[in-house]
Design goal:
Blueprint (H helix, E strand, L loop, with lengths): L4 E10 L3 E4 H7 L4 H7 L4 E4 L7 H16 L8 E5 L10 H8 L6 E5 L5 H14 L6 E8 L17 E11 L4 E9 L7 E3 L10 H5 L5 E3 L1 H22 L9 E4 L4 H11 L10 H4 L6 H9 L8 E8 L3 E8 L6
Parallel strand pairs: 4-5, 4-6, 11-12
Antiparallel strand pairs: 1-7, 2-3, 6-7, 8-13, 9-10, 12-13
Helix pairs in contact: 3-4, 7-8
This protein binds oxa(dethia)-CoA.
């Protein structure tokens, strides 16, 4: 029997309508459009403003878009993985809530928390289930309501992040397409540089933790920047070398969208020119787990069957990794 590979066979997305611009952020904290564009490269980000709406609402809309686009019935789905650091609640898993909201009843589901590497870690996980031959249709939905954990009085973090969701369908193939390989890594020491101090079992929420704003994301930007530049570029270069890929063999680099300078450094290290890099940070900011599938969604019409694509991510944990895949379909 021919080897089974796992291929992405469709992409769906949902972005909230509200656009939080740099000009608006400049009225909330001491910053400027010029600083944000020069140091980060973000012009605006989407924010889920509707009262009572959460990560699962965006995730469910992305999954519905995916199912409609691929002509898939919810009953056909075997498994759903939700990559998120902003679950609706600490428990149950947001994946279960999304499955309920999308009428996915013949599946099991779970959340995967790998921060900005959440999508690539989920794709590696889905790949195992598909390659085993036992699973035929796995949905990965990366969804984040980052605005729920951002302190809009902190100029060092609030310009960076945005809300959004994207979903992919992963199916088996025996053709020479799909996920070829991946390299994933973690370093738990990095947790000191990027985390949320309170609300977990280490420091349960209290009046004091709320007063100290410890329920918001805490980041030491420079330390994270340094680690992101070296780790993401190294692992992307490593997977290219392992598969004897030159820059000209790669159709697209799809990097996590945290900072334009990190994206440029990664592309430089791989010898890849800017027109081979998917970039949408300017309009959505850093949507954590959702950045990579949102890029695939934005660029879907430009992708051709057999295109060599390198995904690369770095995030809290620290977590990082790179996936090499061959795109599975031509524009529809
Ligand atoms: O996706 C998860 C992984 N996260 C990342 O990859 C983020 C990685 N880090 C970064 O992207 C960058 O470190 C930041 C964008 C967060 C910060 O950029 P930076 O060039 O590293 O700035 P910095 O922290 O070194 O700060 C330089 C100066 C400081 O002022 P002083 O101390 O030199 O007077 C900051 O207070 O810039 C100041 N600053 C700002 N100024 C205007 C920091 N944030 C702002 C701001 N507007 N929004």
């Amino acid at each position: 029997m021919a080897n089974i590979r796992a291929a992405i066979t469709g992409v769906g997305a949902y972005l909230p309508e509200y656009r939080l611009t740099n000009d608006e952020i400049s009225k909330m904290v001491d910053t400027t459009d010029e600083w944000i564009m020069q140091r980060i490269g973000i012009k605006e980000r989407r924010i889920l403003k509707e009262e009572g709406k959460a990560t699962s609402d965006m995730g469910a809309r992305a999954v519905k878009d995916l199912l409609a686009k691929t002509g898939t019935s919810p009953d056909e789905i075997d498994m759903l993985i939700c990559a998120t650091v902003t679950p609706d609640m600490n428990l149950p898993a947001t994946a279960n809530i999304i499955a309920h909201k999308t009428n996915i009843h013949n599946a099991w589901s779970f959340d995967l928390n790998a921060a900005c590497s959440g999508f690539i870690f989920s794709l590696s996980t889905a790949t195992q289930f598909i390659e085993s031959g036992r699973y035929k249709k796995v949905v990965i939905v990366a969804a984040e309501k980052m605005s729920a954990i951002i302190n809009y009085e902190d100029r060092t973090t609030c310009p960076l992040f945005g809300d959004g969701a994207a979903a992919v369908l992963v199916e088996p193939t025996t053709e020479d397409i799909g996920v070829i390989d991946y390299i994933n890594r973690v370093d738990g020491l990095g947790r000191h540089h990027l985390h949320i101090k309170a609300g977990g079992s280490l420091k349960p929420a209290s009046e004091e933790t709320v007063r100290n704003k410890e329920h918001y994301l805490y980041q030491e930007g420079q330390a994270v920047f340094k680690a992101a530049v070296s780790s993401m570029a190294d692992v992307a270069a490593e997977i290219m070398e392992k598969h004897n890929l030159n820059a000209k063999d790669v159709a697209w680099l799809v990097p996590h969208q945290a900072n334009m300078r990190i994206i440029e450094a990664t592309a430089r290290r791989m010898g890849i020119s800017k027109d081979q890099v998917m970039i949408n940070i300017r309009k959505y900011g850093n949507t954590t787990a959702a950045t990579i599938p949102l890029c695939l969604w934005d660029y879907e019409k430009q992708l051709k069957k057999g295109d060599n694509i390198i995904l690369a991510a770095f995030g809290a944990g620290f977590t990082w990794g790179s996936t090499y895949l061959k795109w599975a379909y031509d524009p529809k």
